[in-house]
């Protein structure tokens, strides 16, 4: 048995050196101290508890909610000569019994347990007779209702410190903002634990936000510039994944969909094919990707806006794990925000919880609408100080210029005023641009003085400016009246010329620099 962490790293994992923070974290655990580890997906969290598990006396109990992954992880450990096992609902009673015996006899170094299993039957009582030397809590953000993946069964883990006050706990997560971190420590009863934060920066990931128009067309163009390169398209709904996959297949691409509504067999088949590069593109809901270790995913597209920055960061983090350049694209339109807001409002959650979700969504919206370096926004979300623009996001490549848009704002506002504040985006743009379609004629909107006053701007320009006006509070929107635009006191000041408006200049896709041409 090696006595030093570097020997263990070489002997069991075949690596010559630790990544940043790993050695410090291991030293901390070896000194019997509790800690919280934040490292991005693929950052190398496992070694932080696996090496102490090898070097320390006794058994390391690993709590993980990802039943599907336990088997792989345990196989990998065994393959490296480390005695390990897992306990979850996939085992028969006999198999489980056998593993409990092994644990009792001290034949295991690591035991992975799903939290619901730990607190069912008398497993928890057995822990006392197992000579446990360390608890590792993976995906520890699941314990916090401030996190984005709260699991009630994780709450019971507060029993660990109470019953085993002298056994150190190492909590790990790839995704927790400051509030969630504090809550993790509190829930686990390890408030004084040191928190280690590895850098979340993934400079090889190109970040781009693209207007959510003609998404399929944009995707096709994008993929044809990423010939045979593996990628994932994330959609909001199961139905969405099927529609997008079908249209890509019809266009001749090797694409399949993946969502939790499919049978387990079909799902693992698709996953296998993707891992083996038999399928180029997976169109999936968020059900896809947890623990998928494919290093050569070259691009990620978000077809719809994710519900929060943590999820978004985890999902784009599945690209470029080999360190080579990878492209990520987020499609964004203001309808995506509305859909997400409606989803939150419709959930049956306590009001306070809804507020958290809305606040998180709002941060996502800020990212999508940013006119400063997007990576700065992402990293500052994870409380990482950045003192330079990244040069590898669409904002850095196309710095935004602001201009006096008071007249543009007045045109839009008077369009809203003259239609009695009853029109929504599509109709307002048609009025401004003077489109004589049936709907317009039916309402007699072609006779309005505002009809056609904005014909000099393209529809997508108007859409972008109107969104900016919404975001800066110059226009209101009534979600409960078919998203009709409303005037507010600021609108009236602008209309009367008492207040000026600045907007960020629109740059057509075709004129955006470099990487954007990919889309
Ligand atoms: P996480 O759990 O943080 O998502 P893993 O622990 O699965 O990440 O590690 C991701 C990959 O990085 C694994 O293939 C792992 O073997 C590798 N890895 C971890 N630490 C090192 C290291 N010090 N040197 C080289 N590779 C490492
Ligand atoms: Zn940037």
UniProtKB/TrEMBL annotation:
Gene Ontology MF annotations: 3'-5' DNA helicase activity; ATP binding; DNA binding; four-way junction helicase activity; hydrolase activity; metal ion binding
Q: Which cofactor does it need?
A: Zn(2+); Mg(2+)
GO CC aspect terms: bacterial nucleoid; cytoplasm; replisome
Q: Which reaction does it catalyse?
A: Couples ATP hydrolysis with the unwinding of duplex DNA by translocating in the 3'-5' direction
Q: Name one GO biological process term.
A: DNA repair
Instruction: Tell me the keywords, alphabetical order.
Output: ATP-binding, DNA damage, DNA recombination, DNA repair, DNA-binding, Helicase, Hydrolase, Isomerase, Metal-binding, Nucleotide-binding, Zinc
Q: What is its EC number?
A: 5.6.2.4
- Looking at the record, the residues that make up the Helicase C-terminal domain are 218-365
Which superkingdom? Answer: Bacteria
All copies of the Helicase ATP-binding domain together span 26-194
Q: Which family does it belong to?
A: Belongs to the helicase family. RecQ subfamily.
Q: What is this protein called?
A: DNA helicase RecQ
Protein's gene? recQ_2
């Amino acid at each position: 048995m090696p006595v030093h962490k570097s020997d263990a790293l070489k002997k069991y994992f075949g690596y010559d050196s630790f990544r940043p923070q790993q050695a410090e974290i291991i030293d901390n655990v070896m000194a019997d101290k509790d800690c919280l580890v934040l490292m991005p997906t693929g950052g190398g969290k496992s070694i932080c508890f696996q090496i102490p598990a090898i070097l320390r006396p006794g058994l390391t109990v690993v709590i993980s909610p990802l039943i599907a992954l336990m088997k792989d992880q345990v196989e990998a450990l065994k393959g490296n000569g480390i005695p390990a096992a897992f306990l979850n609902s996939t085992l028969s009673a006999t198999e489980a019994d056998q593993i409990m015996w092994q644990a009792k006899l001290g034949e295991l170094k690591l035991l992975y347990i799903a939290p619901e299993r730990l607190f069912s039957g008398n497993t928890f009582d057995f822990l006392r007779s197992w000579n446990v030397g360390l608890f590792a809590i993976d995906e520890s953000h699941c314990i916090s209702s401030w996190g984005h993946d709260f699991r009630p069964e994780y709450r019971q883990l507060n029993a660990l410190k109470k019953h085993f006050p002298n056994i150190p706990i190492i909590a790990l997560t790839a995704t927790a903002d400051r509030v969630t971190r504090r809550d993790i420590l509190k829930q686990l009863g390890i408030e004084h634990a040191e928190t280690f934060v590895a850098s979340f920066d993934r400079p090889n990931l190109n970040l781009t936000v693209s207007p959510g128009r003609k998404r399929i067309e944009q995707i096709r163009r994008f993929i044809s510039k990423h010939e045979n390169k593996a990628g994932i398209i994330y959609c909001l709904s199961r139905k969405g994944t099927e529609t997008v996959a079908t249209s890509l297949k019809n266009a001749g691409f090797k694409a399949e969909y993946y969502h939790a509504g499919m049978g387990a067999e079909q799902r693992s088949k698709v996953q296998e094919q993707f891992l083996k590069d038999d399928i180029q593109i997976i169109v999936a809901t968020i059900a896809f990707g947890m623990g998928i270790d494919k290093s050569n995913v070259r691009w990620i597209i978000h077809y719809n806006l994710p519900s929060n920055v943590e999820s978004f960061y985890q999902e784009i983090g599945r690209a470029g794990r080999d360190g080579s350049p990878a492209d990520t694209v987020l499609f964004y339109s203001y309808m995506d925000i509305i859909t997400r807001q409606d989803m939150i409002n419709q959930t049956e959650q306590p009001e306070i919880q809804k507020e958290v979700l809305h606040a998180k969504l709002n941060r996502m919206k800020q990212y999508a609408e940013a006119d400063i370096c997007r990576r700065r926004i992402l990293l500052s979300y994870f409380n990482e100080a950045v003192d330079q623009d990244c040069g590898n996001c669409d904002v850095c490549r196309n710095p935004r210029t602001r201009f006096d848009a008071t007249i543009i704002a007045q045109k839009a506002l008077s369009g809203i005023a003259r239609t009695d504040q009853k029109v929504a985006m599509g109709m307002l743009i048609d009025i401004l641009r003077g489109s004589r379609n049936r709907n317009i004629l039916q309402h007699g909107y072609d006779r309005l003085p505002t009809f056609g006053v904005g014909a000099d701007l393209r529809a997508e320009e108007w859409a972008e400016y109107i969104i900016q006006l919404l975001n800066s509070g110059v226009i209101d929107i009534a979600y409960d009246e078919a998203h009709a635009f409303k005037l507010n006191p600021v609108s009236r000041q602008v209309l009367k010329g008492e207040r000026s408006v600045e907007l960020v200049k629109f740059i057509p896709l075709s004129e955006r620099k470099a990487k954007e041409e990919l889309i």
